[in-house]
Amino acid sequence: MADVLRLLAVHVAEPDPGHFEWVITERVNEDRWREIDRAEDGYKTYKTAMASGLVALEEMISDLDVGPRRGVDQTDHPHTPPEDTVQPAPSNGKDAASAKAKPKKAAYFGFGPIR
After folding, report:
1. CA atoms of 42 and 14, how far apart (whole Å)
2. What is d(CA 35, CA 81) in angstroms, rounded to the nearest whole number?
3. Does pTM surpass 0.85?
4. CB of 22 closer than 8 Å to CB of 38
5. CB-based contact 78:4 (threshold 8 Å)
6. Where is the composition biased (Basic and acidic residues) (predicted)?
7. What per-residue confidence (pLDDT) applies to 107?
8. For residues 9 and 35, what is the distance between their CA atoms, to the nearest angstrom?
9. Domain residues of the chain, as ranges?
10. Is 93 left (phi over 0), alpha (psi -120 to 50) or beta?
11. How far apart (Å, rounded) are the C-alpha atoms in residues 97 and 63?
């Protein structure tokens, strides 16, 4: 059975002033998202929380070339992209790093290095 791409998002919540937590959610249907993971500890800055949340999201995905997948029978509503949506070309694998390889230096996600 074909796998469908899971619709995941990472955002930062501020439950208390100056206390930031990353949150990963998954789209359940057109109107609802479900929290699937959250930082156990808070961060002092939005930047650090977001960068850590992106690392957590990346670690959930076994193959970053194809993204997080779920069998069609496990979804409430399989996602079908709109007709006029441009779809990315399939990867030839030459630019893909090993999914199991961990970066040896600080990771960057547009927010600077993760500390």
Report:
1. 9
2. 23
3. no
4. yes
5. yes
6. 66-82
7. 53
8. 9
9. 3-74
10. left
11. 10
State the CB neighbour count (10 A cutoff) for residue 48.
Answer: 19
* Residue 39 structure tokens: 């930082």
Structure tokens at 31: 């109107």
Closest-CA residue to 114 (of 54, 69, 31): 54
Nearest to 24 by CA among 13, 16, 99, 32: 13
Q: Name the β-bridge partners of 22.
A: 12
Q: How far is 108 from 3, CA to CA, in rounded Å?
A: 29
DSSP secondary structure string, 4-66? EE--EEEEEEEEETTEEEEEEEEEEETTEEEEEEE-SS-BSSHHHHHHHHHHHHHHH-S-TTT
Asked if 111 and 51 count as a contact pair (C-beta separation under 8 A), the reply is yes
* Tokens found for residue 17: 């002033």
